[in-house]
Amino acid sequence: MTQSALNLLSDLIAIPSPSRSESGTADCLQAWLAGKGIDARRHLNNVWAVAPGYNPARKTLLLNSHHDTVKPAAGYTRDPFTPTVENGRLYGLGSNDAGASAVSLAHVFCHFCSTPLPFNLILALTAEEEVTGENGMRAMLPHLESQGFKPTMAIVGEPTSMQPAVGERGLVVLDCIARGVSGHAARGEGVNALYAAIDDINTLRALNFDRCSQLLGPISVTTTVISAGSQHNVVPDECRFTVDVRTTDAYTNEQTVDIIRNAISSEATPRSTRLRASAIAADHELVTACTALGLKPFVSPTMSDMAVMNSFPTLKIGPGESSRSHSADEYIEIDEIHRGINTYIDIINNLK
Question: The pTM is what?
Fold first, then answer.
């Protein structure tokens, strides 16, 4: 299966698929699955299929990864859309994040289509993951349910060195505005909104939350952007700043926003509260299926479509290294694909 997966991944690399423009790779994946005798379906740029013998009375495992990519990094020294094998590596944009996971899971799905399981199996290769878009997994889940298919657990393919990520923090981005009164700087008039913002930013730096997630650790609050003023001699009456909040399961995203709002005087408006923290129980069968293989659970520092799968347990695991994602001259080790396919099969075989 490794060579077949490598060939499919090479085909995907050669088709530019930045988020929201993935129709070419969706066509490729749908055609490849159809060539394997799979009834591959399409919803927007999401490609999905259900293994034979679906029974709504049984539990359902969803296999998911994404086929969109970021735009090529500026530092590329090779054509990002020309798949090249050198020294046991396949180079190309999306090879690591998350093409290797996508093609591995596609092959694993085909394997189990001819090997009956005591539970249902669904494959969803989705779009817009890199931008958490409306037409990716957020559209795919309700579409599955409208067709009568409801996952009860999921494996999410992302580069994790084939170690199981049992949790990841959520994200809330706050757009904040500190307000003051303009005046002439030379006369010391007005109320400086910049100083008000600095006071609030320092409050956020020292902010402690009463509860701390046992798995995900503390909530982090980081100011990342600030803008104020129009000219050197005018006291600014408005200062805007952006705050990156990495949330946990200790509070809902809405509760976290309320705590921050109560701590500062600036206005704080969340761009969204939908990207929630994910955590799977240590005794869930997906986790124990991994630990039985000697794999070591960890908490992922990065986000994925786990954030929009809130109604059932999810586990993130896939071939490749997270540190290679979004980097110039991205690559995947061919042996990582081989191990990824075999490990996915072993995990699924270990499920009850």
Answer: 0.89
Query: Helix, strand or coil for residue 6?
Result: helix
Q: Is the dihedral of CA 46, 318, 352, 309 positive or negative?
A: negative
DSSP-derived secondary structure for 176-194: EEEE-B-EEGGGT-SB-HH
Nearest alpha carbon to residue 94 among 167, 161, 159: 159
Cβ–Cβ < 8 Å for 328, 95: no
pLDDT in tens, 167-223: 999 999 999 999 999 999 998 899 999 999 999 999 999 999 999 999 999 999 999
Q: Are 337 and 319 in contact, with CB atoms under 8 Å apart? A: yes
- Would you state the structure tokens that stand for residue 343, as one six-digit string? 């490990």
Angle, nearest 10°, between helix axes 100-113 and 2-13? 130
Distance CA 292, CA 123 (A): 24
User: At a CB cut-off of 8 Å and minimum separation 6, what does 281 contact?
Assistant: 287, 313
For 262-273, letters b (16+ CB in 10 Å) and e give ebbebebebeeb
The residues that bridge with 65 in the sheet, in sequence order, are 125
d(CA 198, CA 243): 13
